[in-house]
Amino acid sequence: MIGLGRFGRAVCATLHNLGYQVLATDVDEKRVSEALTEDIVGHALQIDSTEPAALREAGIFEFDTVIVAIGNYIQESIITTLNVKEGGVPHVVAKASSEVHCKLLKRVGADHVVFPEYEAGSALARTLTKPSILERFDLDPDNSIVELLVPDEFHGKTITEIQLRNRYGLNLLAVSQDGKFLINPEPTKRLERGSAMVVIGCNKDINRLPI
Prior knowledge:
Helices cover 36% and strands 24% of the residues. By secondary structure, the protein is α/β, with parallel strands linked by helices. The chain starts with 5 loop residues before the first helix and ends in a 5-residue tail after the last helix. Residues 132-211 form the RCK C-terminal domain.
């Protein structure tokens, strides 16, 4: 993890709690000390990530995955991402603070770019406009897996009767039953109001559901 701002600290803490060994770095010695004191990382170093020699000495190039979480300093973020990729790291995840920043990170070799503010804003808008959607996992910009409450229109009907694939172009992956999910339910399974269903398909088709 390169960068111990709010985003970097959150990722470090989560990975550390899950039992992963995390090496974190930041140019700010105070942030490094705080990360160690709060025990959110196994190891933390104060280095300037825009210097390839410092990254090499810290052993950053030996990792399979490096997360560049320098979101607010675009120049440092881009230089660091370039340095890490040129150092031979197979998988580099970088945090962007704007759409332009996102494009530049991809140009210099970032394998995956996250844009937390945009993603959080999009998620909030979806929650407000589609409150029946409980969870959403975007496969790509056009396709998603969503968990949603069974629409009133589907209540009491079997999976065959709602014709999910023919009418909406969607595939049903699971339905909830007694607090657990039933994977690949039988076509004769009846849907009930208040339970949940998980579907996969194109976003424009998901938006056509009666929710």
